[in-house]
């Protein structure tokens, strides 16, 4: 296996987590990185996106998965330099183990998250992440939610009809035949206009604005 190297995406998504420390940076949309060298195809069967959310103060946490449907990662001289992938928002799932209150169902929450209150999947069935920059990670970059990160990944994250750039630590390995990456970061869903029960909304801030996103990504030549 070659040395640990350049990084990758890590993306996305869902409703509301509380209290996770992170050093995710969010800015305006940036220019996509040029994809050079060889293309590695994302293995959608072994790539997973996890989400975790909660009510204010971390109460009643919910979690689940959504599917990555396609994507590519470009590698030149053992280094990732670009890439992108698509996420099927209609595939959003809530883990039944996270819904323990009497009378509540995971399927009901799934329906609500897919509604216009949150991700409006009928109008916006696809989310997208496009790498804009890959840089080495150092201790000066701050805390990480994963162990032993080696790169900072920046990318344009599109949710619904809005695109913003996010930067977060990731751990990436590149071999002659594969690229693997893992990341965990937190986004403020209200930055993408997903304001249901956030502070300042008509229904107040019962649900945290923070959403913890976890990515396990595998790509093959």
UniProtKB/TrEMBL annotation:
InterPro entries: Lipid/polyisoprenoid-bd_YceI (IPR007372), TTHA0802/YceI-like_sf (IPR036761). Residues 39-220 form the Lipid/polyisoprenoid-binding YceI-like domain. Keywords: Signal. It comes from the Bacteria. Coiled coil: none annotated. PROSITE patterns: PROKAR_LIPOPROTEIN (PS51257). Residues 1-22 form the signal peptide. PANTHER family: PROTEIN YCEI. This is YceI family protein.
């Amino acid at each position: 296996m070659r040395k640990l190297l350049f990084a990758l995406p890590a993306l996305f998504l869902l409703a509301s987590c509380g209290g996770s420390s992170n050093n995710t940076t969010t800015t305006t949309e940036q220019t996509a990185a040029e994809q050079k060298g060889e293309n590695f195809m994302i293995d959608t069967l072994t790539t997973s996106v996890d989400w975790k959310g909660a009510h204010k103060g971390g109460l009643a946490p919910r979690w689940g998965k959504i599917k990555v449907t396609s994507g590519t990662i470009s590698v030149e001289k053992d280094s990732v330099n670009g890439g992108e992938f698509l996420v099927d928002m209609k595939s959003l799932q809530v883990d039944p183990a996270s819904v323990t209150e009497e009378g509540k169902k995971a399927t009901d929450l799934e329906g609500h998250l897919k509604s216009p209150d949150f991700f409006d999947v009928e109008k916006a069935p696809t989310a997208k992440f496009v790498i804009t920059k890959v840089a080495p990670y150092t201790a000066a970059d701050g805390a990480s939610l994963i162990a032993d990160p080696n790169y900072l990944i920046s990318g344009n994250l599109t949710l619904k009809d809005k695109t913003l750039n996010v930067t977060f630590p990731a751990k990436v390995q590149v071999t002659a035949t594969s690229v693997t990456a893992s990341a965990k970061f937190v986004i403020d869903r209200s930055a993408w206009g997903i304001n249901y029960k956030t502070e300042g909304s008509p229904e107040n801030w019962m649900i945290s604005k923070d959403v913890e996103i976890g990515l396990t990504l595998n790509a093959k030549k």
